[in-house]
Amino acid sequence: MAAVLDLITAALVTVKALAAGETPGADMTTDALDKFNDVLEALSIQNLAVYATIDTAVPLVANQATYTLGPAGTGQRPLSMNSIDSARVTYGGVDFQVEIVPKIEYDALAVKQTTGIPKWAALDDDYPNATLLLWPVPYQAGVLTLSQKQKFTAAGALTDTFDMPPGYRRLLRLMLAWELRTDYPGLGPQELQNLKDDLAGALGSVKRSNIEPVLMRSEVAELDASGGGCVNWRDGV
C-alpha cells in the first residue's frame, strides 16, 4: 500500500517534470494533489471505472412518494440514474424488485398517487441532493434498498494511502500524468502519443475487469401456454 505522494511523484516522473529519485517540491505537490482529486472525480462518473458498490437503506413511509438522497436526506446522492445498479423494497422479510426508470416515464403517468408496492423508481437529479420518486406510492412502512456505484473518496493529504484493486495504480498514474502534461511540457509528440495510448489501454483494462454478467430475460419465455406466468421458464412451470 503506497501513499498518494508516491503516485503523484511517479506521475511527475512520467511527464519528465522530475528525474527518477527526485522529490517534488511543495508547489508541485499542491497542484498535483488537486489534479489527483479531479481524476478521482472523473472516474466516479464513469460507471465501469468504479469497482465498488454500496447499499443505501431508505426507510419508507406510508403514502409518501418522494425520498431525498444526499447530505439532506439518506445515503449518497446517486452519481447518475445509471449508477443505480438495482433497487428493491422489503415488506415483512419479502423483497420486491423495483425498476429504475427515466423521469420522463414517471412524468407520463396519469395517476401518480396510486398506492401499493412500488414497482418504479425515477430519479429527479439535482445537486447536492437528489429526489427519488416511487410508483405506486408505498402503502405502508417498509425499506427501500438501493445498490449504487460508490464515489471515490478524495485525498485530503499527500500522506493518505492509496488502496485500490490491481490496475488502478497504473491507471491513476497515467491519468494524472495526462492532466499534468500541459503544466510540464517535457514530452515530445511521440511520447505524448505513447502516453495517450497507454492511458486508453489502462482504462480499457480496468473497465473490462468491472463488467458484470448480464442476465437476459424474455417476457414471452416467462409465460405459460395459457398466458400465465412461469416460475421456471426452462421447465415451463
Describe the structure.
This protein is an alpha+beta fold and 237 residues long. The chain contains 5 helices and 11 strands, in the order βααββββαββββββαα. The chain has helices at 4-14, 26-44, 103-107, 168-180, 189-209; strands spanning 2-3, 53-60, 66-69, 84-91, 94-101, 115-116, 120-124, 130-135, 137-138, 142-149, 161-162. The strands form 3 sheets. Strands 2-10-4-5-7-8-3 form a 7-stranded mixed beta sheet. A two-stranded antiparallel sheet has the order 1-11. Strand 4 (84-91) and strand 5 (94-101) form a beta hairpin. The chain is elongated, with a radius of gyration of 23 Å.
Distance between the termini: 52 Å
List low-pLDDT spans: 231-237
Q: Give me the Rg, rounded.
A: 23 Å
What would you call the structural class?
alpha+beta
Order of helices and strands: EHHEEEEHEEEEEEHH
Reported for the largest beta sheet, the result is: 7 strands, mixed
The dominant shape is elongated
Q: What spatial order of strands do you see in the largest sheet?
A: 2-10-4-5-7-8-3
Helicity level, as a percent range? 25-40%
Tell how many strands the DSSP assignment holds.
11
Average pLDDT figure = 90
How many domains? 2
The number of helices is 5
Strand fraction: 15-25%
